[in-house]
Amino acid sequence: MSDLDFVSGSKPIGIESGEGPYLYGTDGTEYLDAGASYACTPLGHCHPVVVDAVQEQIGELTFVDSSYPVQAREDAYAALVAAVPSRLEGAWFCNSGTEANEAALKFARSATGDSKIVAATRSFHGRTMGSLAATWKDKYKKPYEPLAGDVEFVPYGDGEELAAAVDDETAAVILEPIQGEGGINVPPVGYLETARECTDEAGAALVFDEVQTGMGRTGKMWACQNAGVTPDVLTTAKGLGNGLPVGAVAVRDWIADGAASHNATFSGGPVVAAAVHATVSTLVEEEWPAHAADVGDYLVTELETALSDTVREVRGDGLLVGIELKRGANRVARNLALEHRILALPAGRTVLRVLPPLVIGEAEADRLVNALTEILAPEATSES
Ligand SMILES: *Cc1c(COP(=O)(O)O)cnc(C)c1O
């Protein structure tokens, strides 16, 4: 087995079940999930409130199209709209993150009458034609060109370059409030505010892709709330249904006007709607974002203390944590999994990404810190 195989799919670990922050292999081995579910299970695996809601709904009404009012869908919309920043007054459900961003870019074009999109270096917005055009990495794009859209890339985190790129022809600026896939990159203070100001001045839509940062992961329900900046469009997916495939676009009124002829067959289907309602209301009512902030602070402090000599940097917010290593992240992820039963993800060549369910506690954080301390210890260098 090569390291590449380990990261790209064929991992030698069959998973059979999950509970809370743990996954269980076919041989009964318990693994701590620090990334295996890609931020899709904020409440932990098989959370009983979500499981019950889905089981009840699938037996009652599995599907009817979205032109018929259904209680589950109305409850899901109400919960989501109540949970997004207050100036985002409407929402639309889709099936994934890329579809949410695709919709955001369409809505922005239609609401502004413009077509130029400004995106950032090292961004990741998804793999369908429009979202892919706004994604940075050539590896994901080259084989499929030409892509859909007129996209200009500016260096992530540089407010001046961003403001200079936004003009009267700009339909949207699309940014992750903290970049996930691109390496857990936290922008400097004031960057999101600059994005807000320059899009306001140009009459362009500000789109925040919160597919990875949202659902409480960074200590607030949405990462943009840490900066106090409300976008015109907020996209979410991954953890929105605690593991069921669902995404959403939340919009301000002037953007909603541009959404008239967009839809999808499965938009807000009753089963995923039941999952969304259960997930969002549980996260909010039980205050899991605040818990993510506390455990995240604890984890980052412990990592910094234990690893100050063996890593370059620990960064992120809440339970979206990136560890910039002095060596390849694939191999460290592999050691974590095979020797320590902890499943984490690389984000780029040298960054190890930790994004566990928000329900971990200090014991799980300690387990990760101890394992990394062992793997990265100088005397272990030759074997790892
Ligand atoms: C995962 C991700 C996407 C794409 O979501 P899919 O559901 O895989 O289409 C888009 N944006 C960000 C920030 C992501 O992390």
What CATH calls the topology of the largest domain is Aspartate Aminotransferase, domain 2
Corresponding CATH architecture of the largest domain: 3-Layer(aba) Sandwich
Cross-sheet strand order for the largest sheet? 4-10-9-8-7-5-6
Could you report the average pLDDT, rounded to the nearest whole number?
Answer: 95
**Major β-sheet profile:** 7 strands, mixed
Number of strands: 15
CATH top level label of the largest domain: Alpha Beta
Strand content: 15-25%
Apparent shape: globular
Terminal Cα separation, in Å? Answer: 15 Å
Treating each run of at least 4 consecutive H or I residues as one helix, how many helices? Answer: 14
Radius of gyration: 20 Å
What structural class do you assign from the helix and strand content? alpha/beta
Number of domains: 2
Low-confidence stretches: none
